[in-house]
Amino acid sequence: MTITWRNRTIGEFRRRRSLVLNCLALILLMSVLTACGPASDTGSDGKQATTPDLVLRPGELKTESLINPISVDRNASRLSWRSPVARQTAYEIAVATNVEDLLAGMPDLWASGQVVDGRSVAIPYGGAPLLSRQTAYWRVRAWSDGASQPGPWSEVASWQMGLLDESDWIANWITSPSVSPVASSPGLKNWLVATAADPQFTDAEKVADTKRRLREMPPATYFRKDFTVSGPVESARLYSTSAGYSEFYLSGEKIGDRIFNPAQTDFDKRIYYDVDDITDRLSVGPHTLAFHLGNGFYGERTAFGRDDLFYGEPAAIAQLEIRYKDGTQQLIASDESWTAHPSPIVKNGVYSGEVYDARRELNGWAKPALREDSEWQSVSVLEDAPTKHLVAAEMPPVRRVTEVAPIAILNPAPGIWTVDFGQNFTGVPAIDVSRFDLERDQTVLFRYAEWADKNGNVGMKSGGAAPRTKQVDAYISNGNDTLPWSPTFTWHGFRYMEISGLSEAPPLEAFSAHLTRTDIPRIGQFTSSSELLNRIHDTALWSFEANLVSVPSDCPIRERNGWTGDAHATVRMASYNYQMAPFLEKYLGDFKTTEMIAPTIVPGRRTRSGMIDWAAAEVLLTWEHFIHSGDASVIKRQYDSLLEYVAYVETVADGDLFTNSKHFYGDWCDTLPELGKARPLGRCMSYHTPGEVTATALMVRVFDLMAKMAVRIDRDVDSETFSSRRDAIKSAFHTAYFDPNVGGYGSQTANAMALSFGIAPEDVIDQVAASLDTDVREIWDGHSSVGALGQTWLYPALSEHGYEDTALGVFTAPGATGYSYLFDVLDATTLWEDHTKFIPGEGAVPGKSLNHPFHGGYDAWFYTGLGGIKPDPDMPGYKHFVLSPVFPEGLNSVSVELETGYGLIRSAWTREGEEISWTFNVPPNTQATVKPHPMSQSKQKVGSGKYTFILTTDGKMRSIVETP
Predict the structure, then answer these.
(1) Model pLDDT, residue 463
(2) What is the dihedral of CA 501, 506, 509, 511, to 10 degrees?
(3) In 10 A of CB 125, how many CB atoms?
(4) Are 140 and 155 in contact (CB under 8 A)?
(5) Phi and psi of 527, rounded to 5°?
(6) What is the pLDDT at residue 52?
């Protein structure tokens, strides 16, 4: 039933309140009775239910977050499903080695029996240990609340194990027999100058060293092996990976759509491998297994001028296992019988770009029946593997995700053209070189930049001095260019692409590009009545996605490293927008393999130790993963590494404070009080908040979360210890930094952290919130002054204490530090690292990154504040959650959606005169505690269903409507 109350006077609402409440009670009673009724007539014998009951069948079965994966290497695989019932009270899982036994009710791997548990996400497999390559078939059924019998069994799902033991790898690691660089040429010289001799680099010795390193860079390499398929194929699995970037081919066709693969890791500790099912691609007859191998991060030796960052020459391993329908098997494995040939990619570096010499093209290099010339040589077989462990890839690969079309071509100087793609992003261009009418040996250079003036003169200062090289590609024509060209082993952070080496203007339609990133799915959607707010949201997402090439990086034009502080500055906003669990598990694994304690960068050898505020990421990311996924196993796996971190934290403590500046970066790149003002501590160090304040506040949160996580894995003694440390640090923080004269801790970031982390004592919370509000409205004229560490916490600290109008006002405030200034004056399409340091003017070029996602931490508030969706740590994974939005005066509507493991949560509200119409839905098998405003004293728990609340603008209830 539906009850609608609109356009009524307050008197009418009061007179009808009793009727509304009675109707609500009846509705809820009917819902409870419906949920308690028989869920199914399926008996314990496992027979299928009748057709009307199939709606109660669990669906969306996943293993390790994937549907029917074929590369699982964790024996306690995590199983998830969705139960389409109001409330699941128990489940039963059956797992078998074949479908027939499973359907017959004879699971030989695991029969869980009835497990009294309402959860349906991240349930660990508890059956017999599985073997390499083994397939497990499973199904599940559930009991609904009040039902004596289970519902019907789900459809059958499966997962297949990867290669679990080192002995399963029969293949050898192979590498190029020759790593000699190609001879110099005019085209190479042009690229060398453009890449290494940028005017920003004035140290002649460093420039000379960089040029030497670039000259010594070897070409990429082709590898191939011919084989014959002798009969009909039952199954074929390719297990493959590389140290360095690789792309694999079968008979001339690329296998998969992944790029920049494998993911960056601590390569000497672990390398991800892939498993491809190529059964349908193997017809009877001749075939070729081949791959193209480049440097990637493994073979990087130029960008930072450090030999210790170089792991070694690229190598690869491949193992194709074919099972024929007659039961026989065939193995094609990388070994000394393979051959190799230099690739037309004569230079390739993650940072320096790529040189493609079309004169060296080898048509059909990956196809059967190639007539190999004298340059094809037998490969070299490595005696020692380049890594300790091969691990099945646990997160999606990097792919071309979003097409970006250019909007204009500018001509800033004779012979120079600049393509404007209209959006700063990370990606690869696709260039139709056939439109250029090139002559043989003609070289075209492509320089990539985030900035250009109105005439198209690019400025590359935002790339900074780290790395030494600039982003430049080169294409050398063979005089017969017929195919579009893209770089293969490098990507770029850019909006503008400067072109030189052409004799006439190129057509706009010759260019396209794609945003490239780790292809984690979007799970969140936000929109509002404010176009400015929608653009601010989109900008946060563009900035985040542009820094997601297998690690959460700081910026794509410059360092491309997994800075730990940037990771925890963005993890909350990311968790509301993307399926982060697999990505976070990979990155948390990087913490475990690094040799540093309290690292600033993971993975990789370019890092440092001891910065406790940045390295707090390991604790914060583990917690966010847990509360959003509902998977406690991540805590167990990470716990020993977390203990190492907090033990180190204690060694650098100053009693109960953290005052040593050697151990923190602080509120990086906070807003300057006036454009261009110098920072007293240099670089991008915090202007407003002392680093010891943010470091100490973060340690309160670290020990608080450690206490909560310890309880989750039954480490109660540890929890008591951590709780004690939390309380001591909290008390010391308040004593040291609270100023009773202003009722706060000295800055927006300090006050926001004190409120959000539970530091401020109960008797001063209102003072601190009021002080924060005053700081924003009066001292900063509605703007924020926060940096990397404050962005996430400012807005909930305001709105959860009644100042939601101030929180929203930060996004709409006009003036030189606001978002409208960033968009309208600076023409930004991503978040700048330090936009208040730059003074725009004729010839001015920004000197900091123009794509830094840590400033996007605010975006979490669009979900938690404006949408009101908040996970419950006591029932994580959104088994239970809180719905408590705020309704700022400056907005007329908000719509937020979040896809969780249990289903879609939606919260949407519209302002209608003096009322708010708030509609939300609670997924099956979940509950929500509803508070119409964070400060409301009224709350109620509701089960799955769709509801509409009619509220006053301050969040007071007028009526409730439920649509079952």
Answers:
(1) 85
(2) 20
(3) 23
(4) no
(5) -150, 155
(6) 43
Give the count of alpha carbons within 13 A of 496, CB side only: 24
CA 709 to chain centre: 23
Residues 6+ apart with CB under 8 A from 717: none
CA distances from residue 524 to 396, 794, 900 in whole angstroms, order as listed: 18, 21, 9
Measured between alpha carbons, how far is 228 from 509 in angstroms, rounded to an integer? 43
- pLDDT value at position 23? 37
3-state DSSP call for residue 401? strand
Global pTM value: 0.93
- CA distances to 417, 507, 945 from 450, in Å: 15, 21, 47
Label residue 676 exposed, middle or buried (CB < 10 Å: 0-12, 13-18, 19+): exposed
Instruction: Please name the helix (run of DSSP H) or strand (run of DSSP E) that holds residue 695, with its range, or none.
Output: helix 691-712
- Residue 964: per-residue pLDDT: 57
The CA distance from 621 to 616, in Å, is: 9
Tokens 């680099």 appear where? Answer: 201
Q: Based on the number of CB atoms within 10 Å of its own CB, is 66 exposed (0-12), middle (13-18) or buried (19 or more)?
A: middle
| Strand-pair category, 377-378 with 253-254 | unpaired
How many of the other CB atoms lie within 10 Å of CB of 927?
20
What is the reported pLDDT for 20? 34
Q: For residues 539 and 537, what is the distance between their CA atoms, to the nearest angstrom?
A: 5
Compute CA distances 520 → 206, 398, 420, 584, 900, whole Å.
Answer: 39, 9, 27, 11, 14
DSSP summary character for residue 865 = I
The Cα–Cα gap between 861 and 865 comes to: 5
Identify the three-state secondary structure at position 641: helix
Q: Is 215 exposed, middle or buried (0-12, 13-18, 19+ CB in 10 A)?
A: middle
CA–CA separation, 823 and 838 (whole Å): 14
Q: What is the pLDDT of residue 935?
A: 86
What SS3 state is found at 282?
Answer: coil
Q: In what order do the strands lie in the sheet with 285-293?
A: 253-254, 246-250, 285-293, 221-229, 339-342, 377-378
Describe the crossing of helices 748-756 and 791-799 by its angle, rounded to 10 degrees: 70
Which tokens is 366 given?
Answer: 């990956």
Contact 629, 121 (CB under 8 A): yes
Dist CA 794 CA 799 (whole Å) = 9
Residue 533 in 3-state DSSP?
helix
The answer to whether 433 and 475 are in contact (CB under 8 A) is: yes
User: Which residues face 396 on adjacent strands?
Assistant: none
Contact, 601 vs 552, CB < 8 A? Answer: no
Ranges of the chain with pLDDT below 50: 1-52
Beta strands in 129-189 (DSSP E): 135-144, 157-160, 174-175
Distances (CA, A) of 888 to 24, 825, 866, 953, 955: 28, 27, 8, 9, 11
Torsion from C-alpha of 678, 681, 685, 686, nearest 10 degrees: -80
Do 630 and 880 touch, CB atoms closer than 8 A? no
CB distance 818 to 830 below 8 Å: no
Alpha carbons 883 and 940: distance in angstroms, whole number: 10
Query: Which residue carries 């790339």 as its tokens?
Result: 463
Q: Give one word for 630, left, alpha or beta, with left for phi > 0 and alpha for psi -120 to 50.
A: left
With CA atoms as reference, report the closest residue to 443 among 411, 483, 412, 472: 472
Residue with tokens 């690690």: 551
Per-residue pLDDT at 938 = 85
Residue 369 has which token pair?
């029946």
User: What CA–CA distance (Å, rounded) separates 788 from 667?
Assistant: 5
Quote the pLDDT of residue 962.
63
Q: Quick one: pLDDT at residue 39?
A: 32
Instruction: Specify the pLDDT at position 36.
Output: 34
CA angle 270, 625, 705 (to 5 degrees): 110
- Give the angle 808-810-816 at the CA atoms, nearest 5°: 150
Taking each continuous run of H as one helix and of E as one strand, the counts in the chain are 18, 42
Q: Which residue has the tokens 């492509």?
A: 446
